[in-house]
Fold these 3 entries.
Entry 1:
Amino acid sequence: MDTEFAVNPEGLHKAIDLMGHHFDKPEVLNLPVQLPELGMGSDAVLNALAPGILGGAARLGEASSFAHMDPPTPWISWAMTLWNASLNQNLLHPATAPVARQMEQQVLAWLAPFFGMNGGHMTPGSTVANLTALWSARDCAGVTQVIASDGAHLSIAKAAHILGLSYLSVPIDAHGAMDQTLLPDDLSKSALVLTAGSTSTGAIDPFVLAGRAAWTHVDAAWAGPLRLSKHAHLLGGIESADSVAISAHKWLFQPKESALVLFRDTEKAHAALSFGGAYLATPNIGVLGSHGATATALLATLLAWGREGVAQRIEHCMGLAHSLRNFIATDERLELYAEPQTGIVVWRPKNENAFDYVTQRLPVGSTSTTSILGKRWFRNVAANPSADINALIASIDRALAEPV
Ligand SMILES: *Cc1c(COP(=O)(O)O)cnc(C)c1O
């Protein structure tokens, strides 16, 4: 047997040891311009790439990390990802991946009921989950139009474009949610997309609208996991949707690429999304062809933490966002965009001229920026349970000091 394909404890231990190593600054990777004729060997590759790959990446679990929707991931998910990479199962083929298929079914059976859905499948992200859901809306409900708010994720317009559906964007209200007074009366040919936690502001669209259109899809990429927490009521009404998208690589702390598309009537939706093929023992459902055992990392995390462990981490994140909100709302130099609903705090200095120097002074990875109706705002996202919110508040305070 070619030993490159065998378990190499020494090499793998070394890879793990390097993960704990501190690399000062990413070294410029000195990579060959052309594909090398001769390989350097796997062991040498670890040393060659560690400073760049491990040293060059933002550490999402660091105390200052509070800028984006990308969370740190638990070590159990790394272990499962390693197993997955070594086994390379393909969920297309039940014969080679019987247990992996069962694991995906199990994860769906555990999570779907929190959303009033009865099943679905995993996708590499909510971009694909949204496309898949709108594909079933088109073929199950005969919709010709997609309606979403100006605050919706770009993947909704992208999906409408791919599917040949027209796209109507409804303005947002002062809190970033869909302004329902501007919605057309006739929704009988429409897929209505409601966002649960918009990417920019974390706003939740009015869920009273769920069920009013020929198809209702909830894009819960970010805030969906709140359903497992004491904040579940914030997404009340989601069970009236026909489909839901959730990115597990956001608030379920999973390595990319892990997401779910859920359906209220999975049998019907999957029938519309199924294609058979001579070499396939079961039909191919959804957008993907070959599909890996991503579910094992999610299942392992859920098994390790339980609902309670997931909830506790998300609730802690919500608390961090609330502390930041309290600082912003009571500091007279600052303006809060709106009350944060789903762990996203959007704010800016009242003095517009301060925006640039505050941007430069804030620690890298602590804060992102967003543009709403042509205005610039700072944005903090509570995806990191280990964030030090007092340190962040102190750094915002320092950044606001007038330059001398
Ligand atoms: C992140 C996000 C998406 C896209 O999800 P990916 O997992 O990045 O493909 C869609 N909608 C919303 C609201 C998001 O925040």
Entry 2:
Amino acid sequence: MESIIPFNKPYLTGKETHYIYDAVNSGKISGNGKYTQKCQQFFEERYNFKKVLLTTSCTDALEMAAILANIQPGDEVIIPSFTFVSTAIAFIRQGATIIFADSYSDNPNIDADKIEELITDKTKAIVPVHYAGVACDMDKIMYLATKYNLLVIEDAAQAIDSFYIGKDGVKKALGSIGHLAAFSFHETKNIISGEGGMLVINDSRFSSRAEIIWEKGTNRAEFFRGEVNKYGWVDTGSSFLPSEIIAAFLWAQIENLELIQNKRKMLHNCYYDNLQSSNLITLPSLPPYATNNGHMFYVVTENSEIRSELISKLKEKGYHAVFHYISLHSSAYYSDKHDGRVLSNSDKFTECLLRLPLFYELNEVDVVDMAKCINNY
Ligand SMILES: *Cc1c(COP(=O)(O)O)cnc(C)c1O
């Protein structure tokens, strides 16, 4: 049977084409124009990010971060195994050796207590991934970074409008804590531009070089601000900046951020309130230092057979539930390069994590119905 309720449906606010039309009419549709700057400024101000550059994807933002971190062949980078390929590939392209870390037993995020034992003389960076928009333990991770002089690059692809509450009680936006951070506006995320992303630069040592890498290795951005009287090729780089058409689309989403976030969080809470945990199904738990940004709702089943049966049961009722990452340490590309450590929590989430539909236009009645279907299992 064809699914009636999809896993995701991109939400359009209605203003996207209006702003795209405006960008097109302005005659300036390449990158770094009015809409790019409006978006960048919005994020800098709202989330206390030092500097933001829009990119064509989160993958690109991670690639920029790997270049800025000056990752060289043989350098080691610690990342969780339970993540999307982009987290690893950006560093692989610079020649890094990826040291995969395990997740917590009750949360897919990197287990911050098991990072220190992975640090060697070759370690250059830690890349925490805020899975489902839930914060990693940033105090512990930043402490290790200071102790061993490492860079922290947050993969905040799913973490827009989510926060970390530090031991000092101060609430900080995810993406504002690491030296660098990468976000995604892919159509599966909370706010979208089809494909799109941004790099956040919190450590000002990287600010001017980031602009150069962003603009094909040239100092064009400085030139346009009148800071230098000619521009040319000064460094490595690529074409990482999106066109104004994409930024204009994103601006319409930004204007509706509050609305989108409230609805998504409401749906998330609705799942949580209606589902019962049992010995077969565990509900997600939020660490005391994290907030919920309504990016994703998942359950963890006792074993993979239960997950398959739940997927079929939901499908019979017209609901499309899906699993998620296959641990990267056991991927076709990397398994023979992995050092052989068993990452049992990562494997457990590979086999047992089940994501339920969550998108702006999803109805509460469907959430209640899906919860009932799972409770009755
Ligand atoms: C979506 C996602 C990415 C990739 O984002 P793109 O914008 O598609 O490149 C990277 N990491 C994580 C954790 C993601 O969820």
Entry 3:
Amino acid sequence: MPDPLDLRSEHEPALELALAEAKAFLATLDDGLVRGRDADEVADAIGGSLPDDGDGALEALRELSAMRGAATLSPGPRFFHFVTGGATPAALGADWLASALDQNAFVWTSSPLGTRLEAVATNWLKELFRLPAEWSGILTTGATMANFVGLAAARRWYGERHGVDVEADGYAGLPPIPVFGGGYVHASAEKALAMLGVGTARIRRLEADEAGRLDIDALQEELERLDGRPAILLATAGEVNAGDFDAIERIAELAERFGAWLHVDGAFGLFARASESAAGLAAGIERADSVIADGHKWLNVPYECGFAFVREPSYQAGAFTAGAPYLTTEDRPAWGFLGPEMSRRARSFATWATLRAYGRNGYRAMIERHLALAQRVGEQVEAASELQLLAPVKLNVVCFRLHPPGLDDEVALDELNRRVGAAVIEDGRVYFGTTVYRGHVCFRPAIVNWLTTERDVDLIVETVRELAAVTA
Ligand SMILES: *Cc1c(COP(=O)(O)O)cnc(C)c1O
């Protein structure tokens, strides 16, 4: 009947076992199937009821290791789904230490280390993304919660514009919030608006084209009609189907002219600002009121990590301080009162360490390598007679479909692409899903992983062509 204290001597062997298991897993990343043949079977077999008596840490970790066949190689170089990256060695090592040191990045008294490191990490990120140093920032669990932070700040601003303290008094007495966005608005921003009580149905979708780019002229008309009343504008830097960007500079101009709050979701697109060649896509973001990005995407830190930045720090603090008597000062922020969680993992360890390890130039090199790899895949698609590129490759996502010569029936084409998409996932050599873009079912592999090279991306087109031939 082991109590953890009785088994305290397992502490070190448990870490050694974890190290051995981690090494074994990492050794499979380059050439293993992204999804093993028996992944479903292994996952489905996990179960049983809560044991009355445990068998100790080593046995538990051995059993956990035996489940590895159900893991996807999502930190590996051939996982092109969801625009998520892996974990650099610096980030992974630091993340292990975040667990071992188990710091609560809540306030200075809970951890000077966790508190200070988050301030430095968020400042470095502002430098990487060329955002003004005076903005506030915070690390979150991902882009969804980062959107939540930015939009909570916007909500507070909206209340203040009407003389209402939303955190204290709620929405009573406030008119519904006008929210404008295009078709690129990510589901997570909608989710954030739902959680904030703004309501997803408040989003007016103004789409300039079939892809969904925010319609600037329509936006201007809507803002003129509001006649000075405040509104929230949602712009997307890097949408998930084709990696495209809303016209952020022009949206920022309108936000400034009409006094609206501009929130930019740059979950992966914000990283364009770390590359000179791609920065133009994300121009104007420094004029927004709130901006977010993901860490577990292009920064290649382990889950969970996202970032939110807010131009006017008092809106972020006001949204989350919730009347608690804690002081936030510039160099000793009380992180537990600047975002949704109070007790918080020190996710700054991984972010700080990876930026320390590779620096601005290391990230620029990685991002530019990915941009070149995406161009390479785009060229391979264009060179293949049975493939069709559906959007120009602007960043790191390649949006394409099978379109064999002579097959023009859209229903049949959708069916074919869906079938081959399922076969790609099943096959496991490379990994990406299908989406619907401009009404067409298509593929959209995204290149985000620090390990990915030509040999990996060349498998994208090769696998699709091969599976199309065998499933035809
Ligand atoms: C991935 C993504 C999100 C959501 O990020 P999570 O980290 O999964 O919460 C939000 N917006 C965009 C544009 C994304 O690509």
